[in-house]
Structures are given as C-alpha cells and as structure tokens.
Amino acid sequence: MYILYFIIILLVPLWAQMRVKSAYKKYSKVAATSHLSGREVARKILDENGLYNVTVEETRGVLSDHYDPRTKVVRLSSDNYHGHSVAAAAIAAHEVGHAIQDQQDYSFLRFRHALVPVANIGSNFSWILILIGMLAGLSNLLLLGILFMAAAVLFQFVTLPVEFNASNRAMDQVVSLGIIRNDEERETKKVLNAAALTYVAAAAVAVLELIRLILIYTGMQRDD
C-alpha cells in the first residue's frame, strides 16, 4: 500500500509537468495571427486596463514567468518575451491576469499574500518537526509539524482560485482585444489548462501527504 502511495505522489506531479511541457512545446511553434510578441501582448493588455505603472521585463529560465506584486513587474522568460506564438501570448496574458487581480484587490490574491510568511515557515520547518517527532516517538512534536504543514497546504489550495481566475481573465482579454482569433482560442485554453494542472497536482499530493501524517499521528495516540 505504501509503495502504491509513493508511486502516486511521485507520478501525479511528473504527469502534470509533462502535460504542461508538451502543450507549451507544441503551441510555442504555432504562430499567433496577431504577430504580437509576449512582451507586446502583456503591454497591450496592461495599457488597455490602465496599468501603465506595471512594467514588463525579460527574465532567465524556462517557464519562469511570473508577476511580482511588490515591484509591479510582469517578468517573462526569454522565449515568451520575444516569442510570437500562441503559447507566448497565453502565458503573457496569464501573468498580466495577476496584475489585474492586484489592481482590483482580488480577495484570494490578498489572502494568498497574507499566507506567504506562514506558508514559508511551514514549508521550511514542518518536516524537521515531523521527522523528529516520528523518530523519537514524540506525538506532540509530530502534531506541531502537521500544523505547520497544514498552513503550507492551505497556501496551495488558495493558489488554485488565484491561478484559475488569472487564466479566465487572460482568456477574456486576448479574445476581446483580438490578440487571438478562431482556433487560437481553443489552443490558448489548452496551454492555460495544462499549466493549471501543475497547481492541482501539487495541491492533491500535499493533501494526500497531510492525511497520511494525520493517520500516523492518530496511530501514535492510540499506542500511547
């Protein structure tokens, strides 16, 4: 049973990563009819929404695209910054979706930002407490580790509506502004949906692991 469990928590994220890489590779080769680069897509959507204070920058890495709410910067990986593909347009629009959320004070985005310090502590220290608690048979220490881990899991769950909402905003923008046309709408959705799978997979695996640890804790309590 444990072997099956570990296979699942290893394969689900791997499968999600393969899906997003496959979709990105495929549609990064499909040119958008608007002929806009990712940078131009981002700038166009930002300007149309009055976000003139948000800048667009190139960043290193592959699929390292993100929006930084602290500095009001949309950062696009080189291929998407310069690329004129459907994939580049989809990802650029998605990151601008986060900037629009920031502008409109989207509640889940604010909640996620508030959870960042707690989630960081949970991610960094939970396993130390959990391992010591399990090895030393200290159920109270294990419980404390589980509580820290639960905070990190909550952060992942709050991330889901933030990411899905950003993708919905992205689709609305690229369609209404004529950035994508006809069949490109379906292709853009495939890129965005594949990317969303990585967040869903991460949340699912985190919940499974949390449940497993809770069961271990309850077992220790019964033994006591």
TrEMBL record:
Lineage top rank: taxon = Bacteria
Q: Which residues cross the membrane?
A: 114-134, 141-162, 196-218
One GO term (biological process)? proteolysis
Q: Which GO terms describe its molecular function?
A: peptidase activity
Q: Which UniProt keywords apply?
A: Hydrolase, Membrane, Protease, Transmembrane, Transmembrane helix
Transferase: present as a keyword of the record?
Answer: no
User: Could you identify this protein by its name?
Assistant: Zn-dependent protease
Q: Which organism is it from?
A: Niallia nealsonii
